[in-house]
Write a structure and sequence with these properties.
By secondary structure, the chain is of the alpha+beta class. The chain has 3 domains: 190 residues, P-loop containing nucleotide triphosphate hydrolases (Rossmann fold, 3-Layer(aba) Sandwich); 81 residues, Translation factors (Elongation Factor Tu (Ef-tu), domain 3, Beta Barrel); 91 residues, Elongation Factor Tu (Ef-tu), domain 3, CATH 2.40.30. The protein has 8 helices and 24 strands. Strand 5, helix 6 and strand 6 form a beta-alpha-beta unit. Helix 1 crosses helix 8 and helix 4 packs parallel to helix 5. The chain binds guanosine-5'-triphosphate and magnesium ion (MG). Guanosine-5'-triphosphate binds next to helix 1 and helix 7. The site of magnesium ion (MG) has 5 residues, from helix 1.
Length: 392
């Protein structure tokens, strides 16, 4: 089947839904795609039903760090990749490690239930990881009493203000994902209003387009007769078909012979795009998830770094006991999963809930730089979140 090329006619943004469990994030995500698909002027938007969002096959294939369902849609002025994180733990993990890379977020709050613990936690975390623009969807407005909904709106604005957001001016839109999915005109109009708010309130972020190209590899696939394809989100820079790239971890240099986004061929990809790169003459086993594809000579992998690390409290799903020098957890850095030896220096111990400075010696070298976020995991759960402060 011939494929239609991806034409960059609109700025691309990464957005996502956050909020307490069951407040309707996935339902609203489905409703957004349905409303835009039926609007007709939505261009590339295809309706993604609820059960395709929660159980997107990519989700399983992407493995445990990127447990995210990506949905693509277009408004009149923008192209969005929307992430709907399936659960609270995934949200924390994907936000602290930067995997979600949100330019803006839709905070979903049930008008019936109001602010719940995870509503507050997600706002706090969004602030900490630098999500500067939040639009509020007061969902389930079909089931909520109007006066009660007014109170919930007030509460949400106060919460946002308390966390350093401009709570008085943040757009708050009353929606019903469920009724919009049913095609009820009152509520499809409400979803349109929510999208208008996102279009106008969330600015197009400044992209690191001039930096050397870097793409953390999320997945590696083989396309029979064509070669090896790597997928992931472009972290910085731009790439065109014909450009030379290197995979430092694999010790190879090659040429990009094909470029696609959401199944559509493209001439040039840039920071923020979700892409697949076809690499010339690369054996399937040479490249792995966790490697990066980069402009030749632009990154030098290292094993040693210093970091500030927040040790999750047991309430957040973290450890119940302190850690000390000699602790040897897994470090999730970009898409890489590497074991590391922790040295806490003079601090000696870090208790759940503490933020500490540590040096780490990784089991193998990965590209590192100050400011890079990562997660610390053991036994399949996240126990810490950190930021690299210096390398070497
Ligand atoms: N009345 C009403 N119910 C809704 C609405 N949106 C979602 N629901 C219901 O609320 C429940 C949870 O919806 P989901 O979309 O799965 O919520 P979620 O936030 O994605 O939940 P998690 O992913 O588990 O955190 C489901 O039973 C939905 O049918 C709405 O606008 N109105
Ligand atoms: Mg959901």
């Amino acid at each position: 089947m011939p494929k239609t090329a991806y034409v960059r006619t609109k700025p691309h943004l990464n957005i996502g839904t956050m909020g307490h469990v069951d407040h309707g994030k996935t339902t609203l995500t489905a409703a957004i795609t349905k409303v835009l698909a039926e609007r007709g002027t939505g261009g590339g938007t295809r309706y993604v039903p609820f059960d395709r969002i929660d159980r997107a096959p990519e989700e399983a294939a992407r493995g445990i760090t990127i447990n995210i369902a990506h949905v693509e849609y277009e408004t009149d002025t923008r192209h969005y990749a929307h992430v709907d994180m399936p659960g609270h733990a995934d949200y924390i993990k994907n936000m602290v490690t930067g995997a979600a890379q949100l330019d803006g977020a839709i905070l979903v709050v049930s008008a019936v239930d109001g602010i719940m613990p995870q509503t507050a936690e997600h706002v706090l975390l969004a602030r900490q990881v630098g999500v500067d623009h939040i639009v509020v969807a007061l969902n389930k407005a079909d089931a909520g009493d109007e006066e009660l909904t007014d109170l919930v709106e007030l509460e949400v604005r106060e919460l946002l203000t308390a966390q350093g957001y401009p709570g008085d001016s943040v757009p708050v839109v009353r929606v019903s994902g469920l009724k919009a999915l049913d095609g009820d005109p009152r509520w499809t109009a409400a979803v349109e209003a929510l999208l208008d708010a996102v279009d106008t309130y969330v600015p197009v972020p400044e992209r690191y387009l001039d930096a050397p190209f870097l793409l953390p590899v999320e997945n590696v696939l083989t396309i029979t007769g064509r070669g090896t394809v790597v997928t992931g989100a472009v972290e910085r820079g731009t790439i065109r078909v014909g450009d030379r790239v290197e995979v430092p971890g694999a010790g190879l240099e090659t040429v990009v012979t094909g470029l696609e986004t959401f199944g559509k061929p493209m001439q040039e990809a840039q920071a923020g795009d979700n892409v697949a790169l076809l690499l010339r003459g690369v054996p399937r086993d040479a490249v792995r998830r966790g490697h990066v594809v980069a402009a030749p000579g632009s990154v030098a992998p290292s094993r040693r770094f210093s970091a500030r690390v927040y040790v999750l409290s047991s309430r957040e799903g973290g450890r119940t006991t302190p850690v000390s020098t000699g602790y040897r957890p897994q470090f999730y850095i970009r898409t890489a999963d590497v074991v590391g030896d922790v040295d806490l220096g003079a601090t000696a111990v870090a208790r759940p809930g503490d933020t500490v400075t540590m040096t780490v010696e990784l089991g193998r070298a990965v590209p590192l730089e100050p400011g890079l976020g990562f997660a610390v995991r053991e036994g399949g759960r996240t126990v810490g979140a950190g930021t690299v402060t210096s390398v070497g």
